[in-house]
Amino acid sequence: MRRKIIAGNWKMNKDHREGAILAKEIADGFAASRSSCEVVLFPPFTTLPAVMEAIRGSAVRAGAQDIYCEDEGAFTGEISGRMIRALGCTHVLVGHSERRHVIGEGGELLARKLRASLRNGLKPVFCVGELLEDREAARAFEVVTAQVRECCEGLEAEEFSRVVLAYEPVWAIGTGKTATTRDASDMHGIIRMLVKELFGTAAAERVPILYGGSVKPESAPDLLGDAEIDGLLVGGASLKSKSFLDIIPR
């Protein structure tokens, strides 16, 4: 049975002082909950060292919100997988909708970032999701499966075994709208069938697929209760320890 994963993406929020306080509150609350799920925090780059210190000795893990596709060199403003790993991080977000649709990153670059994550021993949480116009035009499945193919096809099975997938419908991110559990479950099922086609039955049964998109404590139980949904990628609700801890299943 796949272990549930609850991930908190802080986006461009919390400086190193605020982040350390929040991370410590989450680590302490998670320990007290005795939950068996996996918890991963994604603070801003400048906040990561303070967060790593705050969660030291706890079961909470941390990762970076982005990664560059090269390991070193003249790439002003970029952060490499080697640097992220040196901080003690275990995870990295790749292809978040804001990187795709606000920053303008395309599939070719994201495929290189995914491989850089794996090359540096990090576990990528690879995000896919459709725009509102895609869903309204009945292209949601087509768009999402194309995103998975574009970046994951060609990986070795062993490499793919370290990937976490996250479905985040763009129209539900930061809007207050949440896909219904049925919407999310149907898409997760389609993604899992594609993984089976690309990497085989064992990989399809093993790969965690998270849901992200305006997740709140009120919507989390139904989502986590679905057999196809292996966890949640939480945005705004991860910026307060109480709301984030309320999402974590006991």
By DSSP, the count of extended strands is 8
Distance between termini? 16 Å
As a whole number of angstroms, the C-alpha radius of gyration is: 17 Å
Q: What kind of oligomer do you see?
A: single chain
Low-confidence stretches: none
Total helical segments: 12
Please give the order of strands in the largest beta sheet: 1-2-3-4-5-6-7-8
Helical percentage:
40-55%
Series of H and E elements: EHEHEHEHHEHHHEHHEHEH
What would your notes on this structure say?
This protein is an alpha/beta fold and 250 residues long. It has one domain: TIM Barrel, CATH 3.20.20. Helix content is 44%, strand content 14%. It contains twelve helices and eight strands. The chain has helices spanning 16-33, 48-54, 81-86, 97-103, 107-119, 132-136, 140-152, 157-160, 181-199, 201-206, 220-224, 241-247, and strands at residues 5-9, 38-42, 61-64, 91-94, 123-128, 164-167, 209-212, 231-234. Strands 1-2-3-4-5-6-7-8 form an eight-stranded parallel beta barrel, surrounded by four helices. α3 (81-86) links the parallel β3 and β4. It is globular, with a radius of gyration of 17 Å.
Write the layout of secondary structure elements.
Layout: E1 5-9, H1 16-33, E2 38-42, H2 48-54, E3 61-64, H3 81-86, E4 91-94, H4 97-103, H5 107-119, E5 123-128, H6 132-136, H7 140-152, H8 157-160, E6 164-167, H9 181-199, H10 201-206, E7 209-212, H11 220-224, E8 231-234, H12 241-247
Parallel strand pairs: 1-2, 1-8, 2-3, 3-4, 4-5, 5-6, 6-7, 7-8
Helix pairs in contact: 1-2, 1-12, 5-7, 7-9
